[in-house]
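The material for today's practical consists of a large collection of protein records. There is nothing in a record beyond a sequence line and a structure line. Backbone structure tokens are a discrete shorthand for how the chain folds in space. Nothing more is needed to start thinking about how sequence determines fold. As an example, a complete record with its sequence and its structure tokens follows.
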Amino acid sequence: MRHNNKINHLGRTHSHREAMLSNMAVSLIKHKRIFTTLAKAKELRKYVEPLITKGKEDTTHSRRIVFKNLRDKYAVTELFNDISQKIGERPGGYTRIIKTGNRLGDNASMCFIELVDYNDLMLKDKKAPEKSKTRRSRRKSDIASAAVKTEAPKASAPTKKEVVETPPVEKLPDPSPEAEEPVVEAPAGSTIEEGESSVSEEAPGTEEETK
């Protein structure tokens, strides 16, 4: 009877089960992702995550405990040198299980198990949460941006206007329809009656006739 027994033996003896989980943990540390059944992946997660937590504290004691479980010095070196640096700020949950469907033949559920910090595609999809802006803050930002735009042309240095010199234009006399007649002043003491011209023109032969 298996009352209150939550351990999944995976159909293997204790020694076989421990050896299998140790080999799977070494493969996960080296390759960062492995393909296995869902039941084995769930048991591997319980087995490998405490070892990764031990890798954060790089001491001789921690290295000996991890090596006792893994029995692979290259995996221990990579865990303490590379993986521990990348997951140093994560407080747990170092692995991710992604279901891929059922296997042909025995219809067993299959999945990927991977280290979270080594999946670049999943890390790129995550975006920093945007801060919610209130209506008041938007109005203040709009007013500030408008004030900056109005002050910008004032702060700019004045530009010199280009002065183009035009050649002087000669003034031409206004053409009049009739030429003005010269005005002759009359001698003193003489009076000019109305209707008489100021200068009387005599014919050239009149003087000789009078003589």
Summary: The mean pLDDT is 79. Strands lie at 33-37, 95-102, 109-115. Residues 120 and 150 are 45 Å apart (CA to CA). Residues 135-155 form the longest helix (21 residues).
